Amino acid sequence: AQSVERGDDGVLSVGGVGVADIAREFGTPAYVVDEADFRSRARSFKQTYDEVFADLCSGADVFYAGKAFLCTEVARWIHQEGLHLDVCTGGELAVAIRAGVPGERIGMHGNNKSVAEIRAALEHGVSRIVIDSFDEIERVSAVAAELGVVAPVLIRVTVGVEAHTHEFIATAHEDQKFGLSLSGGHAFEAARLVLERPGTLRLLGLHTHIGSQIFDTAGFEVSAHRALGLHTRIAKELGHAMPELDLGGGFGIAYTTEHDPLPPRQLALQMAAIVERECRADGVPVPRISIEPGRAIAGPSTFTLYEVGTVKPVDLDGGASRAYVSVDGGMSDNVRTALYDANYSCTLANRASDAEPVLARVVGRHCESGDIVVKDEFLPSDITAGDLIAVPGTGAYCRALSSQYNHTPRPPVLAVRDGVARVIVRRETIDDLLALDV
Ligand code: LLP
């Protein structure tokens, strides 16, 4: 986060609040969000895309992908900063509604939305429902008929791009569950079927999303190019010029020094060039562009603060050794290392140390050996129980994917701004866990 600093005493602070004070007041583990940083990333996406697409399609819409991290307060920030919100379940929709986000600022995704979720979305007047299958054409149409509304829909297109990222989070190659195939003709057929139902469905446009944590802009370019090809074909062969085109999210962030973040402006310029060139060449009106970043807004704004409980030296083959540093959280609050082999870094947060750095592994308190938070990091050799460790870049898909594994209450989310830390999601308690048992 932008406002993280280390004082002369070595204590890390964020938004003007020291981590030792945060730990004392709110306990650990805790997710700590730099509110100004979160807001400025959101705002800058919107400004950048508005600027770059100003002449082409009078600006662009940025749908924050709530799946990365959502709570009522964050939904408010997104709305206040002028962004739209992408929800993919009735639960995320409920958060958006509670936060006061109007329907016209919400889009709904999901590859198997229930009738109840579609109904809730249409009742709230969402600005788009993204159709992900032939079944859904019927389902959304039926709910719209029941409510007496015309549902604005996009069609999610599988563009056949192999995104270079972990296979679990690549979404545009053919053999996976999302979208309707472009090359197989399914997406075109879906457009035809949607256009046959003008009383209940309005075809706004196509949607593509090739995956997540992507650094190579070539994948986005190929995807946009193919989507625009279909966009034109639908205009020409079905006589329907669609007013919108969603290019999805997936913009990679730096978790360690291994990567540089994908610069939003550069990608926006590349996208605008493709959209302009192809629409001109094909003689179709330029659709209004939207994108759906989640990780790139939420991820870098947050770190997780843990307290060290034990430090254990373990001898490795070849005579080296590694310090196993156990913290008071783990795979229940950050499963990404175990699930995607993700790389994180960390730092000693509560003091300075001149001790020699040693190879360390930060592990959690759960009952399996894969419960690793940071695989490899150099930490001062005098690290000890009671020290605080900060793991940066945990704002996206950590709290969102968290669990209560081993009956572990989930950590709170704290927002820090202008020298004040406050709870925006409270810590779970053992009573919360027991409350569901009948
Ligand atoms: N739009 C759609 C349709 C998506 O499915 C996603 C992410 C996004 C936008 C936002 O992608 P982002 O900009 O955040 O990369 N749990 C995994 C990531 C799963 C991404 C799911 N879809 C992880 O922790 O890496």
TrEMBL record:
<feature type="domain" description="Orn/DAP/Arg decarboxylase 2 C-terminal">
    <location>
        <begin position="301"/>
        <end position="395"/>
    </location>
</feature>
<feature type="binding site">
    <location>
        <position position="397"/>
    </location>
    <ligand>
        <name>pyridoxal 5'-phosphate</name>
    </ligand>
</feature>
<protein>
    <recommendedName>
        <fullName>Diaminopimelate decarboxylase</fullName>
        <ecNumber>4.1.1.20</ecNumber>
    </recommendedName>
</protein>
<dbReference type="InterPro" id="IPR022643">
    <property type="entry name" value="De-COase2_C"/>
</dbReference>
<feature type="binding site">
    <location>
        <position position="340"/>
    </location>
    <ligand>
        <name>substrate</name>
    </ligand>
</feature>
<feature type="domain" description="Orn/DAP/Arg decarboxylase 2 N-terminal">
    <location>
        <begin position="42"/>
        <end position="298"/>
    </location>
</feature>
<keyword id="KW-0210">Decarboxylase</keyword>
<feature type="active site" description="Proton donor">
    <location>
        <position position="367"/>
    </location>
</feature>
<dbReference type="InterPro" id="IPR022657">
    <property type="entry name" value="De-COase2_CS"/>
</dbReference>
<keyword id="KW-0457">Lysine biosynthesis</keyword>
<dbReference type="Pfam" id="PF02784">
    <property type="entry name" value="Orn_Arg_deC_N"/>
</dbReference>
<dbReference type="InterPro" id="IPR022653">
    <property type="entry name" value="De-COase2_pyr-phos_BS"/>
</dbReference>
<feature type="binding site">
    <location>
        <position position="397"/>
    </location>
    <ligand>
        <name>substrate</name>
    </ligand>
</feature>
<feature type="binding site">
    <location>
        <position position="250"/>
    </location>
    <ligand>
        <name>pyridoxal 5'-phosphate</name>
    </ligand>
</feature>
<feature type="modified residue" description="N6-(pyridoxal phosphate)lysine">
    <location>
        <position position="67"/>
    </location>
</feature>
<dbReference type="InterPro" id="IPR029066">
    <property type="entry name" value="PLP-binding_barrel"/>
</dbReference>
<comment type="function">
    <text>Specifically catalyzes the decarboxylation of meso-diaminopimelate (meso-DAP) to L-lysine.</text>
</comment>
<comment type="similarity">
    <text>Belongs to the Orn/Lys/Arg decarboxylase class-II family. LysA subfamily.</text>
</comment>
<feature type="binding site">
    <location>
        <position position="336"/>
    </location>
    <ligand>
        <name>substrate</name>
    </ligand>
</feature>
<keyword id="KW-0028">Amino-acid biosynthesis</keyword>
<comment type="subunit">
    <text>Homodimer.</text>
</comment>
<feature type="binding site">
    <location>
        <begin position="292"/>
        <end position="295"/>
    </location>
    <ligand>
        <name>pyridoxal 5'-phosphate</name>
    </ligand>
</feature>
<dbReference type="Pfam" id="PF00278">
    <property type="entry name" value="Orn_DAP_Arg_deC"/>
</dbReference>
<dbReference type="InterPro" id="IPR009006">
    <property type="entry name" value="Ala_racemase/Decarboxylase_C"/>
</dbReference>
<feature type="binding site">
    <location>
        <position position="295"/>
    </location>
    <ligand>
        <name>substrate</name>
    </ligand>
</feature>
<dbReference type="GO" id="GO:0008836">
    <property type="term" value="F:diaminopimelate decarboxylase activity"/>
</dbReference>
<comment type="pathway">
    <text>Amino-acid biosynthesis; L-lysine biosynthesis via DAP pathway; L-lysine from DL-2,6-diaminopimelate: step 1/1.</text>
</comment>
<dbReference type="InterPro" id="IPR002986">
    <property type="entry name" value="DAP_deCOOHase_LysA"/>
</dbReference>
<dbReference type="GO" id="GO:0009089">
    <property type="term" value="P:lysine biosynthetic process via diaminopimelate"/>
</dbReference>
<keyword id="KW-0663">Pyridoxal phosphate</keyword>
<feature type="binding site">
    <location>
        <position position="368"/>
    </location>
    <ligand>
        <name>substrate</name>
    </ligand>
</feature>
<dbReference type="GO" id="GO:0030170">
    <property type="term" value="F:pyridoxal phosphate binding"/>
</dbReference>
<keyword id="KW-0456">Lyase</keyword>
<dbReference type="InterPro" id="IPR022644">
    <property type="entry name" value="De-COase2_N"/>
</dbReference>
<dbReference type="InterPro" id="IPR000183">
    <property type="entry name" value="Orn/DAP/Arg_de-COase"/>
</dbReference>
